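Hi R.,

Here's the chain you asked about this morning:
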Amino acid sequence: GGRNIYAVDVTPSTAQTTAYTVSAGQQTNDIPPTYMWRIDGGAGDYASLGQTWSKPQVTKLRFGTTTANGTEDRATIVMAGGYDDFQDGGFGPGGNGNAIYFVNPYDGSMEFVISGTDHGVTNQIVVPGMDYPIPSDLALMDADGDGNTDRIYVGDTGGQLWRIDVGPDLAAGADTIKPVVGKLATVSNNIHPLDKRKIFYPPDVVRVPGDTIPGVATHDLVVLTTGNRSHPLDETVQDRIFAFRDMVIGKMVDADANGLADSYTTLQGQLADPATTGDLMDVTDIVDFTVTANMDALKAAEGWYIDLEGSGEKGLAAPVVLDGKIFFTTYVPEKVIDPTKCSIQEGTGKLYAVDVLDGSAVMNWDGVGDDTNLTKSDRTYGLGSGIPSQAVPIFQPEGITLLIGGGGGATSVDPDIGLPRARTYWGQEE
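And here is the predicted structure, written out as tokens:
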């Protein structure tokens, strides 16, 4: 809680073996936790750090060095600025958290900051419009496959989806990174209550090869849901799941080297006011893309979206893409049903499964008909009471299972994904 970040060294004091025995104390005595450093939000280089909702993630970035054109890989912590309860009062810019921080993991010093607020340092990019808190985790991507994170996607509480390309600063003596920032999409505004969408959770990103959709070039598809975590009972906003095509699979252009991408198109979904068709296809009621008109509209669009149609339905967890299917959960609130007893309905959760390319149903979840004639109602699976967690894939020898936590406990769902598939783990030593 609060606005601070702490680091604790838990390096084992002696060599560890697989033969742990609790009685011998090996699980505790050989790992003495040692305080390393603390970041104080609201002070110094971290003046814009808000409530620390965004997970600090350790990753590898390519840095410049003190030698011109020299580069090296460095472990770095990346995190967004977090949340500010100023946002509890409504929709609009303001509050802390409107930043993305790059942190030295060994001493907690700030390597670089991207923000709408000038931090008064040289290693920064001040981004016009980055004025909303960013409570989401960052979606990290290695776009060129060299083992380093070189692209980041994240949304904010203003419904803006940002892209950051991260590379080394090659100038002599720079010894830092040189990011480029662009805004991929805006899905909200402050005019109509339906349009006040907020992003609290990271997107998932998949590379789509050219002509997977006929006539559409290779692109990265960025999938996210909207929903206000700070007001889960709100019933005024029309929340959605979005899938944006990012056609710039290489680095964004920054000809004037100011850190802001040149001519990087901002995509939009449909807005209620001002009435805006937007760049995306509304597939809320469309499931059959064998129809020529539907496929033509999909090819011409820059992605798609689905309205979450339950009263107050919203996404309160990150989506996950598995085997070409998007799995994401939503929450549908309910009101007090017996004021005399202060009895409250917990609301209900849903699990969606849709095709990553077009949002159509992929599972016969309504139990009607067969798997070849899926309908709109086949997109959803009822989860029971409470706010559901993310759909977490569990990889087992006998198959893959989705596990979703909720008010009544965990629900296990078969995603109908054939084997062989296995999650792979590895360690990388400095």
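One quick note: The mean pLDDT is 92.

Cheers,
M.
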